[in-house]
Amino acid sequence: MALATSREAHAGTTDDAGDPEVGRGRWITGWDPENPVQWARFGRRTAQRNLRISVYAEFLGFGVFAMWSVVVPLLPKYGYSGSSAISDTQQFWLISIPTLIGATLRLPYSFLVSRLGGRNWTVLSALLLLLPTIGLAVAVARHAGFPVLLVMAALAGLGGGNFASSMTNISFFYRAAEKGKALGINAAGGNLGTAAVQFTAPVIVTIGAGFSTARPDVPVIGWVFVPLVLLAVVLAWLRMDNLADARSEPGTYAAAVRSRHTWILAFLYFGTFGSFIGFAGIFPKLMNDSFAGHGTYAIFGVAMTLAFLGALVGSMSRPLGGVVADRLGGWLVTMLSFAAMALGAAGVVISLQDNSFGGFMVSFLWMFVWTGVGNGSIYRMIPAVFAVTAPGDGKGDQAAARKVAAAAIGIVGAVGAYGGFVLPQVFAVAKSATHSAQHPTGTVIPALWAVLACYLVMAAVTWAVYGRRRTGGVTA
Are 113 and 130 within 8 A, CB to CB? Predict the structure, then answer.
């Protein structure tokens, strides 16, 4: 019988098959996904149920996280022009500040899963999403100035913090053989929130304005999230579970901080996820700045843009990275991802120099695909690396390694997300430093060359630490 439908029967008991105990507040003790009997009886179904709701909650979190990437290009049409116009540098700040705050929140968010429980924290973190959504709607409707808009954009970082807590929580529910796939699905479902917002927001603001594209109803973007967030709160409260065995022990996070692998993996994730979220945020602006009038079209009077395709393909390819990494090894998939991303960056440079919109789109989408693959493979590497480096092979040693790996996931996710803040700032600096008569608004080509060089360095680090077999090395 499924755990979800037999709580009263199982509560406070443990049978010979190793069934866990289920107490008040949906707290489960004795959870062991590596126990084949427990996993077959109800473990898999319980894990899948929690995964589904986690995906939905994280989907909304990423939608909130990314909504300013859509709002910023719409502000001039909503009245932010003339003396109230938002400068180019200010636009980059509004796009990137959610990532800065979200990255900073990832570590405490992942820690709160072990302190409060995955179900309880999902409820609370979803409720917090009402602050940036309602805040955006009210601030933009009142034509607030840049300082107020910056605060509202910073609050959108609350949605970015959800990723780390969600990934940490789901990592405890799945056994090692299926962890890469589960984490890939969870991350992809969340990442799709970015693409969903970039695709639907133009439709929503146009419909809200009575199908007028002259003055889109920008505040409606925030209001639409409110009922969706409340639904996530109800689903998490009624259907998710807390795992008592996921509670961190004293020293777990300290052990993760002391491990050199935590920081090496964080450096690599800075390149993959930082690129995904950074490019997803600035892609609509880059497309509009470099190829004004291209990539936009109207269907039944609704303005649409191709910018959502970047986040879409990057999200969809993420599970593939986890699945392939399960079979071939995370280090190989990660190294190939960086090489492919470097190739894509070179393609974007050539396309900008040749003024080729087609080449620009193909090259950028190629990069997005491989950021997703790399994201999935690195998250598969984390538990594998810590399992290999555990002090012993006993059940207790591996359980402790899983807890350290979960702590490392929070750290890796936080550091990696900072890449999403740094990337737009690098592009802003490049544009500001290259003003000329030929490029009145500057060019992002120097930034792309810098990004390409970073990818090559990261590919070399991946091979040197995790691919090359040597004494003291780790093959993940």
Answer: no
Interval 119-176: pLDDT, tens: 999 999 999 999 999 999 999 999 999 999 999 999 999 998 888 788 889 988 988 7
What's the pLDDT tens digit per position in 326-382? Answer: 788 889 999 999 999 999 999 999 999 999 999 999 999 999 999 999 998 998 888
Distance CA 157, CA 108 (A): 13
Q: What is the DSSP string of 309-356?
A: HHHHHHHHTHHHHHHHHHHH-HHHHHHHHHHHHHHHHHHHHHHHHHT-
Report the amino acid identity of residue 313. V
322 vs 33, 179, 256, 405, CA distance in Å? 19, 8, 22, 16
**Minimal CA–CA distance to 19: which of 31, 9, 36?**
31
CA distance linking residue 230 with residue 130, whole number of Å: 9
Beta carbons of 390 and 336 less than 8 angstroms apart: no
User: For residues 328 and 401, what is the distance between their CA atoms, to the nearest angstrom?
Assistant: 22
Q: Which two tokens stand for residue 160?
A: 């970015």
Cβ-count burial of 16 within 10 angstroms (0-12 exposed, 13-18 middle, 19+ buried)?
Answer: exposed
CB atoms within 10 A of CB 247: 17
User: Which CATH code for domain 26-467?
Assistant: 1.20.1250.20
What is the reported pTM? 0.78
